[in-house]
Write the structure tokens for this entry.
Amino acid sequence: MRQPLVMGNWKMNGRRSTVETLLKGVIAEISGLSGVEIAVCPPYPYLGLVIERLAANEAVACGAQDVSAYADGAYTGDVSAGMARDVGCRFAIIGHSERRTLFGESDTVVAQKFARALAADLTPVLCVGETAAERDAGRTQEVVLRQLSAVFRECGSGAFERAVVAYEPVWAIGTGRAASPDEAQSVHRYIRDVIAQQSAQAAGRLRILYGGSVKAQNARELFGQDDIDGGLIGGASLVAADFVGICRAACIG
Ligand code: PGA
């Protein structure tokens, strides 16, 4: 049985005061919730604050939204995986579609970041997914396979033994148009099959999250699919009640 995981990706939002309020709301509403692992990924400047507040609260972990493809050194503006781990992050989102499209991260760079996260003892959350044009052209599997293969090339056949994958169709992110449960399930199944070709054990244990316009209203049906093990939540993670509603939908039993 894979324990569901729900992660909030706050993206580049918030100020100290709103971060404090959001966190307080999440912690208050989450009490008593069990059977789901929860994490939040604030912007870098607020990691320290969030981790400090979460220290007394085992129920919520913290993740970085990105890490550098390089180890420590002369890389102005970057933050290394080792630093993220050092301040208390447990997860790192790797290859989010906004990084790939707006910041030009290639599959190779994404794979290098994935390797850095693993080496620093962070759990990488690899984002994969197709654009609307790729979907319309029937290329979803081809795109996802290419994105996964780059990571296998960099990290070997055991790449996903200590990792999470997030299937995030680009056309569903921030659009209010989530993939249907069936549609998402079939891509999740495909991802698990691809990983099983390298390691059946890793594939069986791997948590594959769905991301893209998840709301409290559609979460239960999405998370009810066999190969959907939780969610990566953007917009709805910025409202405590909405985020916790989604976490609740992921609870086992
Ligand atoms: P969304 O974003 O929930 O706002 O669609 C998801 C994501 O980008 O991770």
